[in-house]
Amino acid sequence: MSNLFKLLFFSYLYFVSSVQFGVVNRDLQKGLHYYFMTVNTCIYALSKEETYCCLLLIFNIYFMKKEFVLIAITALFACNEPHPVTPALSNVVADSIKTGGNRLITVDGKYKVWTKKVGDGKIKVLLLHGGPGFSHDYMECFDDFLPKEGIEIYYYDQLGCGNSDAPADTSLWNTPRYVEEVEQVRKGLGLDDFYIVGHSWGSMLALEYLDKYQSHVKGAVLSNMTASIGDYIAYTANLKTKLFTTRDLALYDSLDRHKAYATEQYTALLMNKLYTKVICRMPLEKWPEPLTRAFKKANQTIYVQMQGVDEFHVTGNFKNWDFWSRLPNIKLPVLVLGGLHDEMNPESMRKEGRLLPNSRTYLCPDGSHMAMYDDQQRYFNSLTTFLKEVDQGTFKADRK
What we know:
- The protein is α/β, with parallel strands linked by helices.
- It folds into two domains: about 1-80, no CATH class; about 100-390, Rossmann fold (3-Layer(aba) Sandwich), CATH 3.40.50.
- Helix content is about 45%, strand content about 15%.
- The protein has 14 helices and ten strands.
- Strand 7 (about 310) and strand 8 (about 315) form a beta hairpin.
- Helix 1 (about 1-25) runs antiparallel to helix 2 (about 30-45) and helix 8 crosses helix 9 (about 265-280).
- It starts with a helix and ends in an 8-residue tail after the last helix.
- About 35% of the residues are buried.
- The model is unreliable at about 1-85 and about 85-90 (pLDDT under 50).
């Protein structure tokens, strides 16, 4: 500001003197010469806006219009007002940028897994989807029940699934690594004293996580899962003989001998004769969109490597998993939640509840493996009641 006033002051004197010189000496040519020297000085020394202001001031002095002189001086000050500076994007705190609740968490130092926060509340729930190799999509019905009860939920696509990175490294697809991934996600989301809701394989993952990290967890829901893969294999074998007709069994055996698991015939047999009875008890054309979307997005590489080609061929790396003896080590409140028409043995889920020292068991009477859809009201009433009771300190476990 001070340099500008100095320049303006001397330019003003120079201009007035040049005009007076031209008038007094009746030599306007020399007066104009001095004038243009003043203009050049302004243009050289000032910014574009400041030059305009100075020329306006000089012009009005020359014509002695006092009211315009005032306007010109005001404009000069306006030219020198500091302009508001928009902060650079790099200066904005990342957490202040709205993303619709979506957030990527780094795991294993180099991969990104997708998470999404929905709702706000004191009760914070991390959802572990099933599969393995499926995605969070089929659990989107939780949107309609938990947030309105003041429960904050976090969707999370496990590595290789859904919106998360899908590395080609098959050595990543094992239970111990996924347990450590869940812990990294917990830290990345800043969760503590939170709740885990696992479904199917997600319940198996939850048990393994609780066996190592339960000090961070306030309560857990084990939905539609038994505590042993051997138990699961035995029960699905019984379901096959129970649900398949003689003709269906003959077709199945023929396709099985030829390992024709990728054929339309084999897929149709499973979907129409098994899945519509024990996965989701609705005709396929009425399956909820999030569920059909999850089936389309499934990572078959992970599913086959960890489980096998289907429920009847469990040959993957968790085929010998058994958690029965470790259930008593889980001390926190647990809800064992399932369906009477599940592909998991209802009696085995009851046994699971009995061996968990601080648990409650509820089996939806009309529910299957997707009781969250085919017995929805009972499923979510049981779930939200459990979460609220644990949070309020009023939870009471079943008598053992």
